[in-house]
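Continuing the batch. This is chain 6 of the set; chains 1 through 5 are on the previous pages. Same settings as before, nothing changed between runs. Recording input and output for traceability.
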Amino acid sequence: MVIASGTEGFKYTALKDIEERYEEIGSRHARNYGWYQSRWHAAAGQIYDSGGEEALVRMWRTFLEHQEQVNDHDFAEFLSTRIHPSVADVLLRWDD
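Output for chain 6:
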């Protein structure tokens, strides 16, 4: 319901916004932060529906083992090949 109602009235909607302004959004824009939470929750459901429980297990294990910083392109490729393409889609298709 939150996602389907659109982004009208939200100051921030891009993935880069929450990365760059996490503290501000979390402390001063509660409804906007809730929208991000709803998007993440829906994305988790899509990952589960597409990749099943095994994708979630692979994600957990992979993030425990690999914590180095990489650029967004390399990270998306890593997510797609090491875990499941649906995980990379969160990064690649956020603004679609």
